[in-house]
Amino acid sequence: MVFSVGLTYNLKQKVSENLGLPVDFFAEFDDEETVDAIYSAIKKAGCEVTKIEADQNAYGKLLDLKPEIVFNIAEGLHGEGREAQIPAILEMLKIPYTGSGPVTLAISLNKSLTHQILCANGVAAPKFIVYNNVNEINDVQLPFPLVVKPIAEGSGKGIRSNSLVRDFQSLKNQVAWVTENYHQPAIVEEFIEGREFTVGLIGNKKPFVLPIVEITFDKLPEGSNPLYAYEAKWIWDVPEKPLDIFVCPAKIPKSLETEIKDTAVKAFQALKCRDVCRMDIRLDKNGKPNVLDLNPLPGMIPDPDAHSCLPEAAMTAGYSYDQLICTILWQAILRNNLQDKCAETSIKQNSRLIR
Ligand SMILES: Nc1ncnc2c1ncn2[C@@H]1O[C@H](COP(=O)(O)OP(=O)(O)OP(=O)(O)O)[C@@H](O)[C@H]1O
Ligand SMILES: [Mg+2]
Fold first, then answer.
1. Tens digit of each residue's pLDDT (9 = 90 or more) over 242-291
2. Which of 31, 278, 292, 304 has the most other CB atoms within 10 Å of its CB?
3. Which of 147, 198, 246, 297 should be mutated for ligand 1, with most atoms under 8 A from CB?
4. Which atom of ligand 1 is nearest to the CA of 189?
5. Alpha-helical segments (H) within 45-151
6. Does 124 sit in the ligand 1 pocket, CB within 6 Å?
């Protein structure tokens, strides 16, 4: 019996071909190598795999193909609900898929809504103010330094080393830059100053937490601020010259490890994430883990030198890249009771059983 898997994604384009867009416009989309690596992992497990670019023709293609399940890494084309678009279409077509649903994806792209849900569930997150434009800034109710970001982006879009502002004029400049270039409100957050970690989770009700990755700031170029911003993600750290700022597993005491892992699981559950998520956590001045950002569609670049943190953490836990993909797919298969339909594939055998 053939087990048919769709693979939905959005491909990066070069910004030079699209004059007038910010340099980081396509940062959240994927390279062909990532799509091919996922394709090959699923194919090797004995499935029939069809790639479907998540553009405006995706609906018709999914309707025609009606795969048993979709492996979704699509970030969506435009709009604040873009990450939710493919899952929403799949739900309309009653096609199961990997990862979180439309509500989780749309909310976690919005940093203000995410912080509110985290706080309501007892997870610490930065205090924040949202400005629609620079004229709204009067007296600032939060102490400097502050971090200024677009309210609904990921992959470091709109976050540069100078997004950390220390005075009123820099705050105004940065809010103006965000609102004018990214055409959306700016979120201004208190600066959570301590050590930074990124934490990958796989699974469902009680997700398995992968080894914690610490992001260190001491090897960033001199004069830069301690932020894992766009430059550190995509300019200073390239596979040809990898930046040595990642420590996995993080060298931390057991008690802190437990505290970070518990926080991550609580956040995963609060946002109703499914199958996989990566989140950024930073310690505040009292050493308490604050959740900065949830990524239910985490980067999945196969090249270890590209420093895609979730695959990196999975490798540390002993997963091969193919096993990571099969493990995520297997979680979605279990959730949707599709075990019988894929009995002739080796997805289960290629997945790592989650404790
Ligand atoms: N409130 C804050 N306090 C301290 N550092 C922050 C804060 N907000 C952001 N940062 C720094 O900026 C980085 C990027 O911020 P954030 O994770 O919110 O952006 P993103 O574009 O959504 O990231 P991702 O690439 O994970 O999608 C963080 O990893 C952290 O180093
Ligand atoms: Mg982040």
1. 788 899 999 999 999 999 999 999 999 999 999 999 999 999 999 999 99
2. 278
3. 147
4. 1
5. 58-65, 85-92, 102-109, 111-120
6. no
In this structure, the residue with its CA closest to atom 19 of ligand 1 is: 156
CA of 280 to the centre of ligand 2 (A): 5
Domains contained in the chain, CATH given: 4-103+320-350 (3.40.50.20), 124-190 (3.30.1490), 196-316 (3.30.470.20)
Asked if residue 355 has pLDDT above 50, the reply is no
pLDDT tens across 129-138, in order? 999 999 999 9
Q: Verify whether ligand 1 is closer than 6 Å to residue 75 (CB atom).
A: no
Q: What is the distance in A from the centroid of ligand 1 to the CA of 281?
A: 9
pLDDT in tens, 292-320: 999 999 999 999 888 899 999 999 999 99
Ligand approaching nearest to the C-alpha of 310: 1
pLDDT digits (tens, 9 = 90+) for 10-40: 998 766 666 677 788 788 888 899 999 999 9
Reference 71, options 122, 125, 162, 4; nearest CA is 4
Per-residue pLDDT, averaged over 120-144, amounts to 96
- Among 107, 159, 217, the mutation site with the greatest number of ligand 1 atoms within 8 A of its Cβ is 159
Contact 198, 213 (CB under 8 A): yes
